[in-house]
Amino acid sequence: MTKTTHLLSAIIPLTMLSIIGCGNTTTPTAPAPPAAVTTANVYILPGGVNLGANAFGDEPIVIYMGERMRWRNLDTLEHTVVADTAALPEFSTTGTLAPGGERSFVMNTPGTTRVHCADHPDMVGILVVRER
Predict the structure, then answer these.
(1) Cα dihedral across residues 5, 10, 11, 12: positive or negative
(2) What is the pTM assigned to this prediction?
């Protein structure tokens, strides 16, 4: 047996094993795209300082679990919205929101807390996170 014949007799079975080993007939599937997160806008209304308990609207702020809560300052003054309790751990404060500013929080814990503006304590509201 020549060296070439001996080499071919070793390579052919290895090649066949490689081909057989690659015989996976299932087609890989692409991973599912992440679910879109719904954004619920919460507004600090223009002239909020003069609106007191209506500075964030005339109803409690209701967000559903898994939604992104986006605070938007539509007023001409800076505001810092603060939770009065730790009932909703995803939200404790917006930090200072300049006019036109916004901050977002994904809310995953159901519960209720009162909120107020640290800069203007008469601006108050109620934040509720509910299950769907």
Answers:
(1) positive
(2) 0.72
Return per-residue pLDDT of the chain as tens, 132 residues. 555 454 445 555 555 445 455 555 566 777 766 678 899 999 999 999 999 999 999 999 999 999 999 999 999 999 999 999 999 999 999 999 999 999 999 999 999 999 999 999 999 999 999 998
- What distance in Å separates the CA atoms of residue 27 and residue 113, rounded to the nearest whole number? 50
CATH number of 115's domain: 2.60.40.420
- Domain that includes residue 99, residue range: 39-130
Q: Tell me the sheet residues that pair with 44.
A: 73
Q: Which amino acid is at 45?
A: L
| Alpha-carbon span 82 to 80, nearest angstrom | 6
Number of domains in the chain: 1
Contacts of 45 (CB under 8 A, 6+ apart): 51, 54, 55, 56, 57, 74, 75
Instruction: Establish if 30 belongs to a structural domain.
Output: no
